[in-house]
Amino acid sequence: MRKLAERNVGRAIDLLNERLAFERTGVRLYDRMLLRMRLAENGEVQRMVDRMQRYRDQEREHEEWLEDQIRALGGDDHVPTEKSVLVLAETQGIERVVHRDPRLDHDFHALLAAELADTAGWDLLVRMAEHFGDREAQREFRQRLREEQEHVLFVRKVVERFLERELRDQQPMPVSYL
Ligand SMILES: [Fe+2]
Ligand SMILES: [Fe+2]
């Protein structure tokens, strides 16, 4: 992270803090959905729990890794910065859906939006590291970007399944998961 931060450490911390705010939101989204999915009496929903838990744990690892990076640069991982405030404003609608909307298909729809934004965020970090010739940071960012890309593929597949059912005019999958 040294090269990326050597010109403007405050801006580098702000950029990492942006990602951190998003990862913390991601953990909250997964935790909330997992809680409700575990209570659902539906085999199809139950079968998704292990994978969702694994992705949740990856979000958590991203969060902790970013906290370490910010502290190593002399920053405080609990002080809001310009872009962390920005992403929290951006994700408010997604959080509102996952916390208040009882429908699982709506939650996955919101989660897809979150994962797409998250993937774009890690991709930007990879590009910045590349731009400033920080190979070590690039490798670390890329590893996490790959995990995010896997999240998108899975969540998109689930959203697709819901949509296929709707378009076939069948009952949407478990609303019973409340
Ligand atoms: Fe994430
Ligand atoms: Fe993710």
| Estimated share of beta-strand residues | under 5%
How helix-rich are the residues, as a percent range?
Answer: over 70%
Characterize the overall form.
elongated
Q: If you compute it from the alpha carbons, what radius of gyration comes out, rounded to the nearest whole angstrom?
A: 18 Å
CATH-defined topology: Ferritin
Hetero groups: fe (ii) ion
CATH level-4 homologous superfamily? Ferritin, core subunit, four-helix bundle
Architecture per CATH nomenclature, i.e. the level-2 architecture: Up-down Bundle
Q: What number of structural domains do the residues give?
A: 1
In words, what does this structure look like?
With 178 residues, the chain is mainly alpha-helical. It is 80% helix and 0% strand. The structure holds fe (ii) ion (2 copies).
Q: Could you list some keywords that capture this structure?
A:
mainly alpha, 178 residues, 0% strand, binds fe (ii) ion
Sequence-ordered SSE layout with sheet pairings:
Layout lengths: L1 H4 L3 H31 L3 H4 L2 H24 L9 H19 L3 H28 L3 H33 L11
This protein binds fe (ii) ion (2 copies).
What would a concise description of this structure say?
This protein is mainly alpha-helical and 178 residues long. It contains seven helices and no strands. The chain is elongated and about 55 Å long.
